[in-house]
């Protein structure tokens, strides 16, 4: 239970920290070469899926993340879909997905004809609880012909999608060990964590593939866009091929060697993205500064704190998050109203996926920790421009 006086104190302190009457949750800023590149792209007339900016943007992603290869696509969801197809996810398979993530993570699994199988999250970094996952697999998984089978459903468990929630790296080392023990593929959902590192290495570089999103609310935007990162040359080639309708290069014939996808990022979006990613360091610095401002603004109030980056990681602080200890669901609602009525955008975390209509019947571990998290977490304004 959080008394109304304290709720008001928290909201007032947060709004003082940014010293603004109104603030959205996450607004993009275009302060680099974005206008120049987009204009140049328009003048070139190469606005669609062929053009120099797509390659330049992919190179910039590789340079920044130290991934060997990056393949730019139309959004983060299609990047996830492509990565799962290339992971060998088959119709009828199960893929382990955290209950607490954006619905795209599970939708991409469904697009493969497979089913998400939900697991719990930990309260430290909001990512998959690795220890609990290990215990869970001990009870439900059996090994048959080199495959991991879910005893309850009889289906193959093929892969895990760890998500770096709000930009905070999850316990990826432990999850990699589990994946290794059970022969599971890892596709990292790094949609929110461009600019975040775990033990000095950029997120998205740990699994067989990592996935980025450049949606309008992400730290770097192309309007809509995404990318598949990988260090495997064959996978990179396959990703490029199937996201460009699987067309075989030839003089003028339209020859396709399989059912591909029309997922290639248009040059126009990549021009915007190149201007954006050139400014990524500044954005990360500003977001980390914003975190400190919020943290000091609420430091004197007990029962509330900012979600802080894990010790072994550096977070991009994509979405700033306050954590309320001892809150009741009605307190959360009341605080969301207090914030939003003042013009300060605030949001609860996503409704847990096993509680969403399309996913209610899916396999799931106990998700009591994710439920607890969803009752005590609020995202507050996180635009880099708030520290200007
Ligand atoms: C944004 C996001 C995606 C999907 O990205 P889109 O570009 O919107 O398709 C996937 N997973 C997570 C965790 C995200 O936040």
Output the strand order for the largest sheet: 1-11-10-7-6-2-3
- Proportion of residues in helical segments: 25-40%
* Distance N to C terminus: 36 Å
> Gyration radius, to the nearest Å?
21 Å
Question: What structural category arises from helix and sheet content?
Answer: alpha/beta
Small-molecule binders: pyridoxal-5'-phosphate
- The percent range for strand residues is 15-25%
Which whole number gives the mean pLDDT?
Answer: 96
Secondary-structure element order, N to C = HHHEHEHEHEEEHEEEEEHHHEEEHEHE
Number of helices: 12
| Apparent shape | globular
Give an account of the 3D structure.
This protein is α/β, with parallel strands linked by helices. α1 packs across α11 (329-341) and α3 (52-65) packs parallel to α9. Strands 1-11-10-7-6-2-3 form a 7-stranded mixed beta sheet, sandwiched between helices. The two termini are 36 Å apart. The chain has helices at 4-18, 34-44, 52-65, 76-86, 104-111, 130-140, 172-182, 233-242, 267-277, 280-298, 329-341, 368-374; strands at 69-73, 94-98, 115-119, 141-144, 147-150, 157-160, 185-189, 197-198, 201-202, 209-213, 226-230, 304-306, 313-314, 320-324, 347-348, 377-380. It is globular, with a radius of gyration of 21 Å. The protein contains 12 helices and 16 strands. The chain binds pyridoxal-5'-phosphate.
Topology overview:
Blueprint: H1 4-18, H2 34-44, H3 52-65, E1 69-73, H4 76-86, E2 94-98, H5 104-111, E3 115-119, H6 130-140, E4 141-144, E5 147-150, E6 157-160, H7 172-182, E7 185-189, E8 197-198, E9 201-202, E10 209-213, E11 226-230, H8 233-242, H9 267-277, H10 280-298, E12 304-306, E13 313-314, E14 320-324, H11 329-341, E15 347-348, H12 368-374, E16 377-380
Parallel strand pairs: 2-3, 2-6, 6-7, 7-10
Antiparallel strand pairs: 1-11, 4-5, 8-9, 8-13, 10-11, 12-14, 14-16, 15-16
Helix pairs in contact: 1-10, 1-11, 2-9, 3-9, 4-5, 6-7
The structure holds pyridoxal-5'-phosphate.
